[in-house]
Amino acid sequence: xxxxxxxxxxxxxxxxxxxxxxxxxxxxxxxxxxxxxxxxxxxxxxxxxxxxxxxxxxxxxxxxxxxxxxxxxxxxxxxxxxxxxxxxxxxxxxxxxxxxxxxxxxxxxxxxxxxxxxxxxxxxxxxxxxxxxxxxxxxxxxxxxxxxxxxxxxxxxxxxxxxxxxxxxxxxxxxxxxxxxxxxxxxxxxxxxxxxxxxxxxxxxxxxxxxxxxxxxxxxxxxxxxxxxxxxxxxxxxxxxxxxxxxxxxxxxxxxxxxxxxxxxxxxxxxxxxxxxxxxxxxxxxx
Length: 287
Description:
Elements: H1 12-19, E1 23-28, H2 33-39, E2 46-50, H3 58-67, E3 74-78, H4 84-92, E4 97-100, H5 106-114, H6 141-148, E5 150-155, H7 158-162, H8 164-168, E6 175-178, H9 180-186, H10 196-211, E7 215-219, H11 223-231, E8 236-241, H12 242-265, H13 270-278
Parallel strand pairs: 1-2, 1-8, 2-3, 3-4, 4-5, 5-6, 6-7, 7-8
Helix pairs in contact: 2-3
């Protein structure tokens, strides 16, 4: 191969979804290239880099994608909205996994897919040498890029759940992701995604997604919940977030240290023991 030519790298995450292999993920909102480098080498299969609810902008995304190049996890960027300009910029900087929020119906799913395809298949604007094609070094990039781009759409309302079969039928949709918190809010259980009605709706939605031939995904808060959703047949499950892991880990460490400190305070210190023993020494004895 010429020094100036490179091959289009296969998207193993997309292939795994097609084959139905469970994919363990993590949600990333820290907006840090250093954090991205750490978590992408932690053994996860995919990592969502969030731009909807995290203050991520394009320059920071570039740094995070660069940091994740040699990791085990495929980056999946959640765009802030189902917008062709936002999606174009995310794809041009090299993201090959895309999670599109608040997709309500088949028309909106088609719009999301179209934003990831070059004409005549879609409306993605053509840049000659973006980071996505190694700055012009992948000769067949524009013709084959869509083969390696994984499009995941997010259903977050009861209305969207009712449209699952129509959304799944859209060509180019690789998976459907359930947004548990927003779905809970829409069902009247704001802040309580574990409410039985919400969990029942999620389980039902997952079954319908699979029956329609698409991969189903969801975000959970811990390994136990993730395992339960895999048992329910979900294919790609995020088992937590970098923010949550950092917050819990540091709080636990601080609490453990304080507990040790309080425990040690109840025992005489070495200095106190020395001071007490000196009171019983004969006068005139040397130290």
